[in-house]
Specification:
alpha+beta; Outer membrane efflux proteins (OEP)
Length: about 475
Amino acid sequence: MTRNKLKSSLGILVLSFTLGACSLPKLAQSPDPLQTPDTFAVATVNNFPADTQNTGLLNWRQFFKDSNLIALIDTAFQHNQELSIILQEIAIERNDIQAKKGEYLPFVNIGAGAGVDKSGSYTRNGAVEHSLEVKPGTPFPDPVPDFLLNAQVSWELDIWKKLRNAKQAQVMRYLSSQEGKNFMVTNLVSEIASSYYELLSLDQQLKILKQNIAIQENALAIVRLQKMAGTVTELAVLRFEAEVLKNQSKQYIIQQEVYEAENRINFLVGRFPQTVARDSSSFQHSFTDSIHAGIPSQLLMNRPDIRQAEFDVAASKLDVKVAKAKFYPNLSIHAGTGYQAFNARYLFTSPQSLMYSAAGELMAPLINRKALKADYLNANSRQIKAVYNYQKAVLNGFIEVSNQLSNLNNLNRSYALKNKQVEALTKSISISSTLFKSAHADYMEVLLTQRDALEAKMELVELKKQQLQSVVRMYQVLGGGWTN
C-alpha cells in the first residue's frame, strides 16, 4: 500500500512538471538588431578626420587646458549633491547583490527557548502525562515545562538556476547603475565647462561694452565742442548721450548675468555663492586642437548611456529565465538538531534529550498559475522594452554626434566671416571719426558705425562661446568626461 502511494505521488509530480514545462505562454518576438553605419557621413562632408582616433577617449584632465576649470570639476566630484545621491544608489545596488547571493546558499539558524504547557486531565495528552513517572516515585510534572536549544538548516536547491540568475540579473543592474553614474558625470563635466565658457564670454562682452562706452564718451565730448562751435545741433548731442546711456544701462544687465552664471557653477560644484576664479584672457585661445569623432562603433563602447542600456538588456534577459523557472518544481531541504527537555537539568543529557529532524520538499505549481504567467509575460515585455531602449540610445548617440559635427563646422565658418566683419567695422570707426572731425561725415554715420561695430563684436563673442560649448558638447556626446 505504501509503495502504491509513493508511485501515485511521483506520478502527480511528474504530471505537474510536464504541465509546467509544456504550457508556458507564448512570448512576443524581440525586435531585430540595429545596424549602425560604418562612418559618420557628415564628418567626411565637413572635412573632419575620418579615422579611429576619438577625442571622447581622452581623459577630461587632458581635454581641458584651463587650470581654473579643472579645479571646478575636481570640486564638483567631491561636493556635488546629485553625484553623491547616485553613489549611494550604487551602494544599495551592490548590497542587493549580496542579498541575492544569500538566497541560494543554505540558511542556518540557531535558537533557544523556554515555555510551559498544561493539558487538560481528561484529554489524551493529559491522561498520558498523568500516567507517567520520570523515575519511580517521581511523577511527571504538571504543568509541563519545555526547554529547547537547537540549530535549523533550510536550503532551496537551485536546480533550474532561478536564484543564480536572479543574482546575476542584480549584478547587471549594479553595472548599469555604475554606467548611469558615469553618464551623470559626463553631463556634469559638460555643464560645468559650458557654464564656465558662458561666464568667460560675459566677461568679454562686459569688457567690449566698457571699451565702446569710452569711445562713445569721447565722441560725445567732441560733439559737444562742435555744438559750441555751431557746427552741429543739439540733436546730435542728444543722440550721442542716448547711445552712451543705453550702453551704460546694458552694463548692469550683463553684470547680473555674470552673477547668475557664477552661481550656476557654484551650485554644480556644491558650494554657496562666491566669486568663480577664472582667466578671461584665455577665452579667445581655447581648444586649438582638432576634434576627432572616430567611428560609430566606438560609441557602443564609450558612451555610458549606451552601455547602461546594454546592461539593462542583459538583466532583463535573466529576469525572463527567472520567471520561467518559477513554473518548475522547487526542491527544498529542511533539517534541525538540538536538545529538548522538560527540566533544565536534563537539557544536555544524551541521548535522551537529543532531538533532530530532516525533511525534503518538492513543490510545483499545478492549478491557478495566472500570477506566474503574468510575471513571465511582464518579464518578456520588459526585455523587449529594454532592447528598444538600447536601440534608442544607440540611435540618439549617433544623431547627437552627427549634429555636433555639423554644428561645429558651421560655427567655425560663421566665426571666420564674423571676425572679418569685426575687423572691417573696427577700421570704419576710426575712419568715420576722422571724417566727422573734418566735417566730411555726418554724426549719424559715426553713431551707426559705432553701433554696428559693437553689435558685431558682441556677436563674435557669442559665436566664440557657442564654438567652445559645441566642442564641449562634442566631447560629451562622444562619451568623454567620465574617466578620471
